[in-house]
């Protein structure tokens, strides 16, 4: 028999340090000790899940710091449902406001990349559009539909480069200066690459996502062909809007 909603709420609150809910079978001192053990186990497990979701952040700050960081985040933004893959949407904003990381403001941008990668990996499936379907299409009327995994992130720091040099086996490389724009998508092999986008390509993709016809989506003086070919090869173009 499932627990009543009030009991569930009281139990969840107890996991965050509130008094034990009434009606526990064990005597109160023993129940308090057991709850403390269970509370710690839950915090450790959720911290490990968060580290798996944000591995570059975990690498950048180290295991001990990340464990403390995860507990602080858990206290502020606990999971709202059992699907832990959906937890962490507020992690980047949390990092941006976390005083011990104030000297490393790029952390929030790296977390935005990692969260977007997770969302892209779990995005709904959609079959790519056969290139022949675009033959002879009028660019003034052609409105491409991009895969739901496609995400453009405008970042304040060179976070794409920071993310890349912190991948397993990556060689050290000098970091560029200034902000970067990230393109994140799930390709046909179910990989989720992260690419630094030129501003014109970013504007093109954003305009297509907003439903603009191809002719209007292309920035002045920009050749969209290389980016469109790359998107087609990655399976990121899945259809066209009806006229």
From TrEMBL:
<dbReference type="InterPro" id="IPR018640">
    <property type="entry name" value="DUF2063"/>
</dbReference>
<dbReference type="InterPro" id="IPR044922">
    <property type="entry name" value="DUF2063_N_sf"/>
</dbReference>
<protein>
    <submittedName>
        <fullName>DUF2063 domain-containing protein</fullName>
    </submittedName>
</protein>
<feature type="domain" description="Putative DNA-binding">
    <location>
        <begin position="7"/>
        <end position="95"/>
    </location>
</feature>
<dbReference type="Pfam" id="PF09836">
    <property type="entry name" value="DUF2063"/>
</dbReference>
């Amino acid at each position: 028999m499932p627990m009543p909603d009030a009991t569930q709420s009281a139990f969840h609150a107890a996991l965050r340090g509130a008094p034990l809910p009434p009606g526990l079978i064990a005597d109160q001192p023993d129940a308090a000790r057991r709850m403390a053990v269970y509370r710690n186990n839950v915090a450790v497990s959720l911290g490990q899940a968060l580290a798996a979701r944000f591995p570059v952040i975990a690498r950048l700050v180290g295991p001990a710091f990340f464990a403390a960081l995860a507990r602080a985040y858990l206290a502020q933004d606990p999971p709202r449902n059992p699907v832990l893959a959906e937890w962490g949407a507020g992690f980047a904003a949390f990092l941006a406001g976390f005083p011990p990381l104030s000297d490393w403001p790029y952390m929030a941008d790296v977390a935005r990349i990692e969260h977007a990668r997770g969302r892209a990996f779990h995005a709904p499936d959609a079959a790519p559009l056969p290139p022949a379907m675009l033959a002879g299409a009028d660019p003034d009327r052609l409105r491409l539909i991009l895969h739901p995994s496609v995400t453009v992130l405008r970042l304040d720091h060179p976070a794409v480069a920071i993310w890349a040099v912190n991948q397993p086996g990556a060689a050290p490389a000098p970091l560029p200066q200034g902000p970067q724009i990230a393109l994140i998508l799930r390709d046909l092999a179910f990989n989720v690459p992260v690419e630094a986008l030129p501003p014109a390509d970013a504007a093109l993709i954003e305009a297509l996502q907003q439903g603009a016809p191809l002719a209007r989506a292309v920035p002045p003086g920009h050749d969209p062909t290389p980016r469109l070919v790359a998107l087609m090869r990655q399976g990121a173009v899945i259809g066209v809007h009806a006229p």
